[in-house]
Design a protein that fits this description.
The complex is a heterodimer of chains A (117) and B (117). With 117 residues, chain A is mainly beta. Chain A is built from no helices and twelve strands. Chain B starts with a strand and ends with a strand. By secondary structure, chain B is mostly beta strands. The chains are: A mainly beta (117), B mainly beta (117). At the A-B interface, strand 5 and strand 6 of A face strand 5, strand 9 and strand 10 of B.
């Protein structure tokens, strides 16, 4: 069965520090997708990135970068030069591959990131 | 633009009441999901639906039911609310099979914080 582990429950950093959020997953599927979502204090989960299992290229978007390593079943998220606005709960998720249907996601328990000024 | 709306941001009900939580999406998505979020437990899937009048149990369906009479609307029903159902409820939708490689990306509503007294 699919499982996502975010071992870091809470992380605190000071502004401008770099921070990496860890995500480790388990699946028997050969085709799957990995996701990161951000949940700011307002409560709404915001989609950040989707990665498919065949694409191990790292991705960079501004201050955000993602490192996908199939060999270690990890999909880590790094924020460079963190800012107070990055304070949020971040969730990693894994899709279920059941052919063309359903597509439920399995979420980790989330990491609360607090960035202090 | 992606839009998922939920009927209330905050709701207070009494034990034993029947509670309806409504979710509407305007993106013609096939899949819709209901989660509850509790501190330390992350997101837990209650029910989901991949078509009108179709539903599937998630991980914690007990005490809940759902209704999907129209494609854009997915309702979560608490038949007889109890205090242990006090939680944040999040609705999400995704394209489904017609979405190709984007089919599994879920978009979330703002959430309903339900308190049962």
């Amino acid at each position: 069965a699919q499982k996502v582990t975010q071992a870091q429950t809470e992380i605190s950093v000071v502004e401008k520090e770099d921070v990496t959020l860890d995500c480790v997953y388990e699946t028997r599927d050969t085709t799957y997708y990995l996701f990161w979502y951000k949940q700011p204090p307002s409560g709404e989960l915001v989609f950040l990135i989707r990665r498919n299992s065949f694409d191990e290229q790292n991705e960079i978007s501004g201050r955000y970068s993602w490192n996908f390593q199939k060999s270690t079943s990890s999909f880590n998220f790094t924020i460079t030069a963190s800012q107070v606005v990055d304070s949020a709960v971040y969730f990693c998720a894994l899709s279920e591959n059941r052919g063309s249907t359903l597509g439920r996601l399995y979420f980790g328990r989330g990491t609360q990131l607090t960035v202090w000024p | 633009d992606v839009k998922v709306t939920q009927s209330s941001r905050y709701l207070v009900k009494r034990t034993g009441e029947k509670v309806f939580l409504e979710c509407v999406q305007d993106m013609d998505h096939e899949n819709m999901f209901w989660y509850r979020q509790d501190p330390g437990l992350g997101l837990r899937l209650i029910y989901f639906s991949y078509d009108v009048k179709m539903k599937e149990k998630g991980d914690i369906p007990e005490g809940y039911s759902v209704s999907r009479e129209k494609k854009e609307r997915f309702s979560l029903i608490l038949e007889s609310a109890s205090t242990n159902q006090t939680s944040m409820y999040l609705c999400a939708s995704s394209l489904g099979p017609s979405g190709g490689r984007h089919r599994d990306t879920q978009y979330f509503g703002p959430g309903t914080r339900l308190t049962v007294l």
